[in-house]
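[Automated response] Your request has been received and processed.

Submitted sequence:
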Amino acid sequence: MTPHKISILVRADVGRGAIELLVTGCLTAPTARILSAQIARARDLQPYEPILVDLTGVQHLEPAALEELRAAEAALTADSAVPLRFALPEVATPCPLSSVG
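Generated structure:
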């Protein structure tokens, strides 16, 4: 079975107005945990900058992964007044690798 892969590009330019995480690949529950850790690291870079997680470039998005990210969002915003936003694809396509096995 081919493993799920995720790629995360972090843009944290000073004065940009937000830290952006551009995500591509396959967003599943396991890769969502990796993304959650990167969101927390981005928060450490510039604690007072809003964070935008752009998921519009993902190939596949599992509902469980989105739930996990929403939980991470709730945890991060509970500790900070700085917003965390998600840009979602118009259509969330389930990953065909999830049904293999």
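Summary generated for your ticket: The chain has a mean pLDDT of 83. The helical segments are 29-45, 63-79.
If you did not submit this request, please reply to this message.
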